[in-house]
Amino acid sequence: MKKLTALASALAIALIISLPGNACTNVLITKNASVDGSTMVSYAADSHDLYGELYYWPAATYETGSLLKVYEWDTGKYLGEIAQAKQTYTVIGNMNEHQVTIAETTFGGRSELHNPDGLIDYGSLIYIALQRSKSAREAIQIMTSLVEEYGYYSSGESFSIADKDEVWIMELIGKGQGYKGANWVAIQIPDGYVSAHANQSRITTFDYQKENRFDDPTANVFNSKDVIDFAKEKGYFDGKKKDFSFADAYAPLDFGAVRFCEARVWSAFNIMNPAEMGEYVEYAQGNSTNRMPLFIKPNRKISHRDVMNIMRDHYEDTPLDMTKDAGAGPYNIPYRFRPLTWEVDDATYFNERAIATQQTGFSFVAQMRNWLPSHIGGILWFGVDDAASTVYMPMYAGIVDVPYCLAQGNGDLLNFTWDSSFWVFTFVSNQAYGRYSYMIEDIKKVQKELEDNLTTYTVAIDQSAKALYDQNPELARQFLTDFCCNQAEIVTERWRQLGEFLMVKYNDGNLHEEENGEFKRNEHGNPAHAKFPGYSEEYYRNVVKDAGNKLKMRELPKDE
């Protein structure tokens, strides 16, 4: 038993060393698995070094021979130049004006397959493809063609690629220095099913294709031609093609991959179909190698609000619940600040890694709807900072500008400004981490109020924008832009007020009572006497166990 524990700890450490700064979560919903027939993809960009802002590239045309400078998304490192497309499309965050959405999670995989000479990193691959594609299939073709021509710079990556009709997972890893191209597989999620990935390769066996038929609407698997032969050449696989597993060959599973990554997928699946996920509890806890399926059928239709709540998950009400152990402290905080692993008495331990985490730069729920013009049908519900305490604001695919409070260049990770949504939301969430069980209830109240309103508004905005679009598409796009910009500023201001309210209510560890948003005063007009809520009985018992003899009230000794 000791040997197994030591091995598990070593594997966990190895995974942490190999994982990049971004450790993200995606949830994927197909049309017939959703409440309204929309496809959906969620994404949390979880990096301690990422500033939450809404990226924007307007559509443009370029002369033949134009070049595009490529910079690594994570670091800003200049990688080189590639040929620019003659026509690019408007991109709002991770969705373009044709309702194509691309998200990612990094799985790393075999380190020797990193190509330091590649010109395309995973972030550039996403945003270049969004500027050039009108469908998910076209995006897959463009992404794989780019790495084939210019080389892939990053480590192993899982991509969610969706449009208004289809949802795909593509997993891709380089071939090492001296090789262009990449090893990759793309699988369409069957309609009526849901999927997820979280920093671990999840595609195992698949129907290998000798030729990719991107123009065939019935094709549901694409892959690089030598994805299996390359693995055999490197000694990663020795068997028949039908038994080849992409994940086992290029990103072998270990304890850390399960506990920090696959457990998040399990939790997302568990929310959407708990009966089916019961048999995988042991797997999520790292006690089994019985892998979960790539996709499951949910036990109900999933709404965009359901997906938002999945992105706010901390394993609540499961065996991995982060609010239930000593690390949660007296206020049941579902967060464990880094490092992710730590040592006591020569033994290595780890903290849970939930879907919602404090280091999120931005997250979104992308909703693509095929019954509306794409400029109106696509909504990127966009939030900044911790998903559990953010507000998802609607950004339509057709907007021609982004809100100033979310815009690039409005502050950064080292420059605080009240004009930035990221910093306003960070101000609130960082307060909550100190008194979580109390403050999160105040936060959820305002969060629900705002998201209820925004969901209701978009129903009316859809109808108004469609009527206007039929008469004048450009005027409709400006109408959508004004709506999105105004609402983002309103939400940000309301959140700033919430932060001020929390500061007063919980000042100095006290509790100032309020009613309908107004703090109580005594009969003379002065602030009512503060309450002292103290701590839970369980916390006090732990204090007594540790220092009871020192802290116990007693009589003074009598003089002798």
TrEMBL record:
InterPro entries in the record: Peptidase_C69
Keyword list, A-Z: Dipeptidase, Hydrolase, Protease, Signal
Q: If you read the UniProt record, what top EC class would you report for this enzyme, in one word? A: hydrolase
> Which reactions appear under catalytic activity for this entry?
an L-aminoacyl-L-amino acid + H2O = 2 an L-alpha-amino acid
Is Hydrolase tagged as a keyword? yes
Gene Ontology molecular function: dipeptidase activity
Signal peptide residues are 1-23
EC number(s): the record gives 3.4.-.-
- Family from the record: Belongs to the peptidase C69 family.
The protein's name is Dipeptidase
- Please report the organism this UniProt entry assigns to the protein: Carboxylicivirga linearis
